[in-house]
Amino acid sequence: MMDDTVKPVLPWWVLLLCGTIGFASVFHHDLWTPDEPRVAAISLEMSRTGNVVVPRLAGEPFVEKPPMYFAVSAFLIRTVGVVTGNTAALRLAPVLWGLGVLAMTFLLTRRLFDRNTALLAAALLATMAGFVENSRWIRADIALMFFVAAAVWCLAEVFFAGRRWFCVPAGLFAAGAFLSKGIIGPGFIGIAWLGMLVPHVIRARGRGELRSFLAPHMVGLCAFLVLSGTWAALLRVVGGRELWDAWFWENQFGRFLGTSKHGHMRGGEYFFYLSALAMYAFPWVPAVTVWAWRAARDIRTRALSRSNLFLLVWSAGTLLLLTVSTAKREVYMLPLLPVFAIMCAETLGKGVPRWCGGFFTFWQGLCLLLLAVFTTFPLCARFLPDSVPAEAIDYLKAFSFLNVLAGCGLAFCIALMFGRPGTSGMARPAAITAVFFIGLAMVPLQAIDRFKSMEHDIRAFVSRVPPERRPAIAGWHFSETMRGCFYYYGDWSVPQIEDEEKLAGILKGENDRFDSVIISEIRSVDDLVKAPYRVLLEGYPGAADRVRPIVWIEGVHERTTDREE
């Protein structure tokens, strides 16, 4: 064990490395499926229409999520986008939300423990795999993470510092969580609130002290209800009863109970979020394990501190809520990462067992090896398996300044690991982990972008469709991703059909509005279409394996013949 009296002090350059991970090459790659084209299209449309009440995807209402994330992204498009371009402005949004999360995690940890532990918690969170991914990914969960962390920090000021009127900003931040993801946001905050309230009630000596908390809580609750209730009421008035029911019953309660037809329904997988934790909190999972073991020991001896009791209730209660829900996806546990980062920081500040230190040493060595691979990719790319798309291999074979930067990062990490004996505590593993994620973003992720991007193929496809024919073209059951791509890249809201009889009628020339159809299906067109047809245009956007084409077809009938003549 390390000396329990040693506190982890992080130099400023380690904090700078951790804080810049999100900016590494973030503006140099395109939208990635499955979520980004949809979110980008909604944000772009909101920036054009100014309608922040009802989010729309390619002209159709999209009420799966409230408008907070889309509205902020739309603002960045209208302000920053005129200089950087729309995609770069959209990518700036999660980076800024992520920096806000790090700041809130620092403030919360400082209130619970001390400044050094708070700095370490922020650094560990910045280098968790799940945070790195989502602070670069265009989707609403990072906004929910920020508002949950901010609200919990305000509540910690209320209960741990006696600053009762912090209930008001807590209510405002809770409204932000609601406007980011819906009811689940205040639910996460409510569990943390109970983790602080119950011990406080037990410790309170008189009813007068408890009554003094009532008025600030009521004002905070009113602030929450006014902001969140205003949007819900506007949605009901502007969108109508059907749209409101689709948001409230279908997307909120339906996903939780498993009655929704949409979403990631995985009922019965009770250990799903344990594996998600191992992936999202990597590489600091061993520290979480040590914290849990020590907490169990302290519970048996009744030595669990008030701060750690709160962390235990917050984490266990939220995991239980997520487990009970039928809808399951790794990203849903993103708002929990700050609590795990705080656990890790508190654990590492007290010292860890030898096996845990051995794991971190192994991890640092692995980071050095991978950085060496990133640096020498032009030499070793030819040895990659045939399953790697040709676009990625061609990119990796070409030597660029990014390989030079990866080499500089490797040299820095080698010097840090073997040539700076004064670097102690968690400064070395945190810095090496940060450099690894920066190198990962600069080289391999840029190669992935070469075949994952759909921009070139979508623009090329749309440009070959005559503008005068577009109003009479329908889309067959486009995915949300494809609808978003056509709107974002082609400025085209393709009307959708889902009825096979209507599809057949269009191809037979029996539809007064449409004369042709664009089909995006894994199934072949022959399996779907029974009427005679001809292919007008075909493309394979973002499909290096040519699995999911988009095909523009029209029927072979008298109307077609007349037009050709």
Produce a short descriptive summary.
The chain is mostly helical and 565 residues long. The protein has 26 helices and 7 strands.
Return the domain count.
3
Q: What is the rounded Rg?
A: 26 Å
Helix content: 55-70%
Give the low-confidence spans: 1-6
Strand content: under 5%
What is the oligomer described by this structure? single chain
Distance, first to last CA: 86 Å
Q: What is the number of E strands?
A: 7
Topology:
Layout: H1 12-19, H2 36-49, E1 56-57, E2 60-61, H3 68-79, H4 81-84, H5 86-112, H6 115-126, H7 129-134, H8 141-161, H9 167-181, H10 184-203, H11 207-257, H12 272-280, H13 285-300, H14 306-324, H15 337-350, H16 354-375, H17 377-380, H18 390-397, H19 401-418, H20 427-442, H21 444-452, H22 455-463, E3 473-476, H23 480-490, E4 496-497, H24 500-507, E5 516-520, H25 525-528, E6 533-539, E7 550-555, H26 558-564
Parallel strand pairs: 3-4, 3-5
Antiparallel strand pairs: 1-2, 5-7, 6-7
Structure description:
There is one protein chain. This protein is mainly alpha-helical and 565 residues long. The chain has 3 domains: 13-260, no CATH class; 354-452, no CATH class; 455-564, D-Maltodextrin-Binding Protein, domain 2, CATH 3.40.190. 64% of the residues lie in helices and 5% in strands. It contains 26 helices and 7 strands. The strands form 2 sheets. The protein has a 5-stranded mixed beta sheet with strand order 4-3-5-7-6. Strand 1 and strand 2 (60-61) form a beta hairpin. Helix 22 packs across helix 23 (480-490). The longest helix is centred in the middle third of the chain and has 51 residues, at 207-257. The N and C termini lie far apart (86 Å).
